[in-house]
Amino acid sequence: MNDWEQYDVVGIGIGPFNLGLAALAEEGTSLKTAFFDKTQVFQWHPGMLLERSDLQVPFLADLVTFANPMSHYTFLNYIHQQNRMFQFYFFKRFDIPRREYSDYCAWVASQLDNCHFGQEVVDCTYEPEHGGYAVSIKDVQSGEEKKVMTTHIILGTGSSPLIPPPLEEKLNEDVIHTSRYLHHADEIKEARSVTVIGSGQSAAEVFYDLLEKQADNRFELTWLTRSPGFFQLESGKLGQEVFSPDYVDYFHKLSFEQRQEALPTLGGLRNGVEAETLRNIYDLLYHRTIRHDGLPVRIQAMTEVNDIQPVDEQFYKLSCKQWQQEKEFTHTSEKVILATGYKPLIPSWLMNMSEELEWEDEKRFRVSHDYRLEWKEQRPHHFFTLTNLEHSHGASATNLALSVQRNQAILNTIVGEDVYPVRSDTIFQQFEVE
């Protein structure tokens, strides 16, 4: 028998999803838990914490409120502890600054003894004879490795930048993904020409940030996207009810084919730009053209960027195609920012277990209603996942509010009782026909 430290639960990755689970486990259960992340401190999209950028969900979608509004770890208690309650009261808004949400998460993480930073999980193997999973952890600073045993695993490794294959090899200090924007913002704003590629919220926020700065040095600013247009995110209240436990229940019961067909129909609720961001961009463009021709700005949809090649030491040639007209052209830019989204980050060691997993197709593993990976041979030791869920649980897969409901379901399964009851009949509409 090994003498490795034993846990009931080990969480891999400490983003908002696993951080909320760590807080709920500490307050509401007697489980022995440990959560590991390779970063030295809590970080949440540090490259995109732009001034005046807001969270796209209300502050009630914090780490714990939907499960336990009386928790010590609510956002309102954080505001109270920072002596900002009256300022927040007069702020009169449900959507909060991203920087403040990030600071709130770091505040929670700093108080949890079960969160361990600077610790990278480098391997995980199933060893039922030893009581579950053997997890290999490397100290990022010292390089030393250790192993722990756990009855259950919770994978919360989040996402990584999604770069279209033709452009994957082009990344450098001049061609970056939006996830690194703030790290390079100063030199980008000193360039003579900048191009943003993409049409979602991140693309719009970066474009607006550059547009505001453009008046100072008059660099050329271009915004290209292959999407048909620059469309607003659907925010109708009834439409938003798909981000509810009731819809998750409905969606998960559909066949894989039905779920795949349903996802594109929900695109307007997940993809697009907040109305206020689009309004700010348009208003700024309008004001700049009152008494002159404005600054050099090009905004163009229906445009694919198929290649990026250096012209000399400073400029890059973008090979573009307006797909509706089927016309190809080139565009030159000193800096290029790819707002091309994200993809699930799946550890290589999990793929070593692929032959033991049930799959819905060649890329998507089968996930139970309570977020367990399903194995060809059933296991008493569960492996939960908080990533790569869109195909199984719908548009809510990356929604911060529903992350709390996911964590409730996971803890209830592990403990074997409803320590955090999951509510039903939470919305006004129905999805199923009885």
Would you give an account of this structure?
It contains 13 helices and 17 strands. It has helices spanning 16-28, 75-81, 85-91, 98-111, 181-188, 201-217, 245-253, 256-265, 267-270, 275-288, 348-351, 390-393, 400-415, and strands at 5-12, 33-37, 115-117, 119-127, 132-139, 145-155, 159-161, 175-177, 193-197, 220-224, 297-300, 303-310, 316-322, 327-333, 335-338, 342-344, 383-385. The strands form 4 sheets. Strands 1, 2, 3, 4, 5, 6 and 17 form a 7-stranded mixed beta sheet that branches. Its cofactor is FAD. Keywords: FAD, Flavoprotein, NADP, Oxidoreductase. This is L-lysine N6-monooxygenase MbtG.
What is the compact description of this entry?
By secondary structure, the chain is of the alpha/beta class. Helix content is 29%, strand content 22%. The strands form four sheets. Strands 1, 2, 3, 4, 5, 6 and 17 form a seven-stranded mixed beta sheet that branches.
Task: Label this structure with key terms.
17 strands; FAD/NAD-bd_sf; 434 residues; seven-stranded mixed beta sheet; EC 1.14.13.59; five-stranded parallel beta sheet; L-lysine 6-monooxygenase (NADPH) activity; 13 helices; Lys/Orn_oxygenase; 22% strand; FAD; FAD/NAD(P)-binding domain
Fraction of residues in β-strands? 15-25%
Please describe the biggest sheet, giving its number of strands, its sense, and whether it closes into a barrel: 7 strands, mixed
Rg for CA atoms: 23 Å
Give helix and strand order, one letter per element, not per position.
EHEHHHEEEEEEHEHEHHHHEEEEEEHEHH
The CATH topology assignment of the largest domain is FAD/NAD(P)-binding domain
* CATH class category of the largest domain: Alpha Beta
Secondary-structure-derived class: alpha/beta
Shape: globular
Mean model confidence by pLDDT = 94
Number of separate structural domains: 2
Our count of helices gives: 13
| Helix fraction by DSSP (H/I, runs of at least 4) | 25-40%
By DSSP, the count of extended strands is 17
- Oligomeric description of these chains: single chain
* Unreliable spans: none
**Which homologous superfamily in CATH is the superfamily of the largest domain?**
FAD/NAD(P)-binding domain
Could you say what the CATH architecture of the largest domain is?
3-Layer(bba) Sandwich
Terminal Cα separation, in Å?
A: 53 Å
Keywords: FAD, Flavoprotein, NADP, Oxidoreductase
Protein name: L-lysine N6-monooxygenase MbtG
Enzyme class: oxidoreductase
EC number: 1.14.13.59
